[in-house]
Request: fold
Amino acid sequence: MPKIKPRVPMKEQPALQRIKNFDSVPYGYTEDQAVEEAARCIQCKKPACESACPVNIGIKEMNLLISQRKFKEAYLLVKEDNAFPACSGRVCPQEKQCEGDCILKKFDQPVSIGKLEAFIADWGAAHQVEVQECISDNEDKHIAIVGSGPAGLACAAECRKYGYAVTIYETLHKAGGVLQYGIPEFRLPKDIVDDEVAKLEAKGVKIVLNNTVGQNIYYYELVSQNDAVFLAMGAGAPKFMGIQGENPLDGVYSSNEFLIRANLMKAYKFPEWDTPIDVGKIVAVLGAGNVAMDAARTAIRLGAEEVHIIYRRTKEYAPARAEELHHALEEGIIFHELVNPVRFHGNDEGFIDYMELARMELVEQADGSLRPMPIPGSNFYMGVDTIIEALGTVPNRLFLDRAPEIKRDKNGVIIVDENYMTSVEGTFAGGDAASGAATVIKALGEGKNAAKAIHTYLSGAS
Reply:
């Protein structure tokens, strides 16, 4: 094993500066920094990083090409497997996937694969590199895709390569799904998402905005008008605590509503954009996943004086990416471990005033797992102006309740077989709608794989 050079750090906006704006936190690698970081890759014979990537990017070769300053070749290589590297490079949980399996992790920090992926995607866009794809002649067959989030976009990109005519139906006025409404600008600038979507449209994918399947057009119409349908509506319905005082009080948001107002409706640009959002002085965010970190970091940028993360376990169990948790703590977010709300209390005007919490302890179960349990007599109170519940999501029932022939499990998640086909022949599903709330890169992978399954179904290829 040669001597391993330390990872090339990426410059970021200082915490005290960035909490006053929504600009990107990392500044990105320069060409020289990217070359130096890519050269840390030891070119394993069997790169475990690639098998750990849900879209199977050729990471080893990407690193080699970048280290040789062959940026265009590296960009084209990545685009072969991933139509949206600028997005996934920024929001993937790389530490649990490609970087988690990098051999260097055993000796030092792994290669910064995600940041190299984002670098090469930005380089390709800045230099207007054209990706010449060989598109087959299958436009006599039509595929309808419901939802323009990561799974829908990835499926559309792959189906277009196979030559099919593709139309995406999107409820909102912008395409991108969670990339648009769920992830703040400081993690994923929206001009990047818009650029990726525009490239997809340039390849012939039609996107119909402001169109809710099940309301503006019925599912059976899609089935009758297309040769295959892919359901990629995501999981847009929020979960709530279900505790006393939750429902009637103003100032209690789901993370979906809060982030949609902030991201998609540009509340942070009020009054330039006509979407005010008053977070008050003290904000409590319930949950400790990436969405909770996004909500907390957005709240402090919107002017909250204190933002508290409320979590019933300890930091080490927080499902958020380590980088997101680190950034949140840097920005002054206060993390409360082993506490859980039990009741919300409002004032005479009907606004949230304070909440009652119980202290928790992790109790070992028969199977060895640790379950958070309330400590009797430990309740205490916390004054709050706003509560944001980031407790996970489930598929939206608006469409699915009008298509009862599509089987779902008890959580409302669409049931598919090993080929992504639902209980209705010719209708496929993937992403959060079929797997439950997961990651962007997992949804991209499912969209890509579902496209292959659709092609097999339509062409009879094996």
Notes: The first strand starts at residue 138 and ends at 146. The chain is about 35% helix and 15% strand. The mean pLDDT is 93. Residues 228 and 426 are 5 Å apart (CA to CA).
